[in-house]
Design goal:
Helices cover 37% and strands 25% of the residues. Helix 2 packs antiparallel against helix 3. The relative contact order is 0.19.
């Protein structure tokens, strides 16, 4: 039988027993978190969209800066297309031809009317009437052909211009007006200017001055104005293998690339929506629109699932968000900011790693 005579031995034994007790309690009631790590980007609650080049040409001037607020129909870029000048010249020449043909038609119509009067008086033969009718009909056919050619020229002009439908129709009306003096350079200038299709903010200019662009090529990434009383959202991706552990309301930590997490911590948010299947590049492009951002979110590796994250708000912080450390950075987090995200998808008691029967099943 062990006999302990000195009190200090009792103290050591008691301390060990207490520590073992705490360790056993912690192994049962404590929790070891399992994190899923991914990437995200901040997006306006109104959504984002791409401005595309309507036709092929060369960028001659960029009129908007990244981060600049723009209004609908505000000039964004100018794109030169050498076909425009030749088409405008051809339209003017065809319009002049039609005017000339219509004058000739009026003269032939008047001559036919006179010949009919003379024929009724027996002064000319019927063949003269027939010749007058034939000449008038041929002239009318020439007019219709010229008008059809003019319509085709306007169709080509629209296909090769860069402005919106409303501005194009205004410029077409100017070119078609027979009495108005036309400044062809002003018309060409209007047709080479890309206008903002909506109010919003320019997030990223996707082209450079002098660059050749094709029809439907993306030239500007923009966001719509935010919805009233609704903050920005974060579109994120996580490994698809974590999909079974995800649920709406899970806490998310968001670390913007523009912020030092050691100094300011992370934005606190929660999962608002979970895409039920692994997301493809095409599907992400529909919601984000920026190829480089999409490639960042779908970084090389396993398949990804898409989540929408709603950040917690705090009107007392400069950014308007709740942070894990104090007030966060002294600036706002702009739309288009790329981020890292961490989601705690599971928590298990330490003892479950030794005795699996203690493992907590997800709800």
């Amino acid at each position: 039988m062990l006999t302990i005579e000195q009190p200090k031995h009792w103290l050591i034994l008691l301390t060990i027993l207490i520590l073992l007790g705490f360790l056993i309690i912690w192994s049962i009631v404590g929790r070891i978190p399992t994190e899923a790590q991914g990437r995200s980007v901040s997006i306006s609650s109104g959504g984002v969209f791409l401005v595309q080049s309507p036709s092929t040409g060369a960028i001659t001037e960029i009129l908007v800066q990244e981060g600049e607020s723009v209004q609908k129909d505000m000039p964004l870029l100018k794109i030169a297309n050498p076909k425009l000048e030749s088409l405008i010249t051809a339209i003017d020449a065809t319009k002049f031809k039609i005017e000339k043909l219509e004058i000739e038609e009026a003269l032939l119509s008047h001559a036919l009317m006179i010949n009919k009067s003379l024929f009724q008086k027996g002064l000319i033969a019927k063949m003269t009437i027939d010749n007058s009718k034939s000449a008038l009909m041929q002239k009318q056919i020439q007019i219709e052909e010229a008008k059809s050619s003019l319509d085709n020229l306007f169709t080509d002009l629209e296909l090769n211009s860069f402005t919106n439908d409303e501005t194009f129709l205004e410029q077409r009306a100017i070119l078609e007006n027979p009495t108005q003096s036309v400044d062809f350079k002003e018309v060409e200038e209007a047709l080479t200017t890309v206008l903002a299709p909506s109010d919003g903010t320019a997030l990223e200019v996707l082209v450079n001055t002098g660059e050749l662009v094709n029809a439907k090529q993306s030239i500007l990434w923009m966001e719509y104005p935010p919805k009233p009383d609704k903050p920005a959202l974060f579109i994120g991706t996580l490994p698809a293998e974590s999909m079974g552990h995800l649920k709406e309301g899970l806490r998310v930590l968001i670390e913007p690339a523009s912020v030092n997490p050691r100094e300011y911590g992370a934005i606190i948010g929660k999962i608002e929506e979970i895409y039920p299947y692994p997301v493809s590049k095409q599907e992400l492009m529909q919601s984000i629109g920026n190829t480089q951002i999409v490639e960042f979110l779908l970084a090389k590796g396993p398949a990804k699932t898409q989540i929408t994250i709603s950040p917690n708000l705090d009107p007392e912080t400069p950014s308007g968000y709740e942070w894990t450390s104090g007030e966060g950075p002294p600036f706002e987090i702009s739309s288009g900011t790329i981020c890292k995200i961490r989601v705690i998808i599971d928590e298990q008691p330490p003892i479950s790693y030794l005795i699996p029967i203690w493992r907590i099943k997800p709800k």
